[in-house]
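Our consortium's second objective concerns turning raw sequence data into structural hypotheses that experimental partners can test. To show how far this objective has progressed, the report includes one record in full. It was chosen at random from the queue rather than selected for favorable results. The single chain below, 217 residues long, was entered without modification.
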Amino acid sequence: MDKAKYIDHTLLKADASKDSITKLINEAKEYHFKSVCVNPYYVSYCKKELRDTDVLVCTVIGFPLGQNTMNTKILETEDAILAGADEIDMVINVAALKDGNHNYVKEEIASIKEVCGPRTLKVILETCYLTKEEIKIACLLAKEAGADYVKTSTGFGTYGAKVEDVKLMRETVGKDMGVKASGGVRSKAEMEEMIKVGATRIGASAGVKIMEEYKNE
């Protein structure tokens, strides 16, 4: 697969200006990244600017803490899809998972997937807060709920993607589900390492730098 198509070109900073989002869009068009990943506020703008291109619009739900109510996350998802989102990256309720409320976590993911329909749903586990056993449980809940991907991180936690976590996630979900490594992947070498252990998507704000490294091989 074209390496650019692994990358969700990401800008989720609270102070991201329209000019910086326009720059993100133009870079995505130039490098043919899989998607731009932006906060919901910018979805409709990105959709308009990316029409007739091969770049998808991805947005985040319950971001970055995952502590919104289930109904709030469902409404957020419905609104994002109406605005033109092609892919949804939702944050699980980490507290519910750690409290052992697995049915709640699974129901929330399944409810959001139902809203997504054929659109891709990625489930952010925020692995920095989870034990290895909790990562495995979260992966299985996401798989059982019908999600398309499990994803490591928001980029707002105590750390981002780790190779050992991505490897564990791939081993847990099997070969037919997507795994997204996100947070701290800033070089070609780091991206290759994540792909080697099973990542099929990379969330990165350093997409241009990574692709330039490939060009300069």
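The partners drew two points from this record. The CA atoms of residues 4 and 32 lie 6 Å apart. The first strand starts at residue 7 and ends at 11. Both points have been shared with the crystallography group to help prioritize constructs.
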